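can u pls check wat happens w/ fe (iii) ion
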Amino acid sequence: MKLFFCRFMAMVLTGLFASAVHATVVVYSARNEQLIKPLFDAYTRETGIAVKFITDKEGPLLARLKAEGANTPADMLMTVDAGNLWQAAQEDLLQPVVSATLRQNIPSHLRDPGNQWFGLSVRARTVVYNPVKVKPSELSSYEDLAASRWKGRLCLRTSKKVYNQSLVAMLITEHGEDKAEKIVKGWIDNLATTPFPDDTKAMEAVAAGICDVTLVNTYYFGRLMEKKPDLPLALFWPNQKLKDPTAGVHVNISGAGITRYAKNKGEAIKLLEWLSSAKAQNLYADINLEYPANPAIKPSLQVTAWGDFKQNTNPISEAGRLQVKATMLMDRVGYK
Ligand code: FE
């Protein structure tokens, strides 16, 4: 009896030890707690694997990863914008992940060609206009907003935000630097007022009649219209002529990669694969009114109501590669 008890206790202790050693993933997240906690809770419920996380802005998180080096407790970095993920890979903070699941679930234009990061949700940066002042038939493309008939009618967010740097980087991919510069110069010539610190303020200016059109990520539109449904604002999907090589709405991602010195690499890859799966994709995208990165999954009803659109399918990694060029271009044309 005594021997049996000892064996039993040994088994219990071994079990506890094993779970303590293997069943945790540590995430550094630039996405805030309210967006990721429900997701990680669901993962832990399903798998028994605990997810510890800290949240901060991407700058401090990258600095922390760099400073911690091989001693970092982080297994996964989660952030928004391909520009930021590309930067993390560039600074050697991530490692390649070979995963058939991720390759299958995430389209190639939404992940790093070197497999160091993967898009998990898609954000569309599109046109928002004031329907009292603009007919949708007057709108067509990002490029067209550089035409002189939009003089004094355009509002933009500041060029300091990575979203706009990525957008301009993608214009360089499509048009080359000279033509992209002419387009962005045209936008600046058409500004009604100095650029705004955020997308919401730019839309409020459109609603207030200060300008007629702006460019924003759709989840900001969704949030603002939830609060103030009577604002005169509407979404437009530009560049939908499908034969055009520049076709498609500009999209960016929020995504994640496995850190270079991950201690729980296997567990972290499992979490990343789970985040790309049907179960997690709805939760991950819906909670911030974004689009699932996995094309097999439909967006929420609220987001679906904004209508279908074709995405631009140029590799989003270009947003990182051309970020410095984009920033210099914006500087040259006086985009503040
Ligand atoms: Fe945002």
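The pocket of fe (iii) ion is lined by residues 217 (CB under 6 Å).
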